[in-house]
Amino acid sequence: MIALRGVRVRYGAHVVLDGFDLELPDGSITALTGPNGSGKTTVARVLLGLVRPDRGVVVGTAGLRRAAVFQEDRLCTRLSAVDNVRLVLGSARDAAAGRAALDALAAVGLSGRDVVVPVRDLSGGQRRRVAIARALAVDADLVVLDEPFTGLDADVRPLLTERVRERCHGRTTLLVTHDPDDVARVGARPVALRSAAPVPVGVGTGRGGPAADVGS
Length: 216
Ligand SMILES: Nc1ncnc2c1ncn2[C@@H]1O[C@H](COP(=O)(O)OP(=O)(O)OP(=O)(O)O)[C@@H](O)[C@H]1O
Description:
By secondary structure, the protein is an alpha/beta fold. It has a domain at about 80-130. The protein has six helices and nine strands, in the order βββαββαααβαβαββ. It has helices at about 40-45, 80-90, 95-105, 125-135, 155-170, 180-185; strands at about 1-10, 15-25, 30-35, 55-60, 65-70, 140-145, 170-175, 190-195, 210-215. Helix 2 (about 80-90) runs parallel beside helix 4, helix 3 crosses helix 4 (about 125-135) and helix 4 packs parallel to helix 5 (about 155-170). The longest helix is centred in the middle third of the chain and has 14 residues, at about 125-135. The chain binds adenosine-5'-triphosphate. Adenosine-5'-triphosphate binds near residues 11, 16, 37 and 41.
């Protein structure tokens, strides 16, 4: 079990999370939803060890192999899609890694020219797919996907959500999304971050308690 307990994060004087609790059951997909600015990306960054809470604890993440899709693609723009994915497979010159990278890209609908040209020459949606393919190619213990489907055409979203469902099955995963359809398609357990001012679970107003509502 990975958990955030009593976590507070602030940027200067701006308290984003306060007394925040979240549990990610082992091997299951949790979808974190909530309004703009409520702190979803901050939660993702805490899980990835990129933001350190000034109160509270993060348990269960020590030594885990993590994979992520950030809101930005964070690709090596001069490299091809195949080489971007190969980088996380650990052996750039290995033919098996090359084949695995091609398979990972084919699974998100990319092949041919699109996988061999520098990714800076791809469209925004194609780069998004490379970023997803790269994260899902990693044999990770913890997968954090921060709005991975943003900018993708409606007709390719089902392919991508299916790929996430398949690859994240049995892996502890946090999916940040604004789209309830993504939550359903991925088969995730929904958790709602209600506002930038945390309130206790089951209570409409007030401060200081966990900021998440866990769905069924
Ligand atoms: N590096 C930072 N420095 C200062 N403030 C920040 C920083 N990162 C985030 N914030 C603030 O923290 C709050 C929560 O931001 P965060 O990105 O976690 O929200 P979010 O729920 O992911 O929003 P969105 O749905 O718009 O992506 C926002 O008010 C934001 O302005």
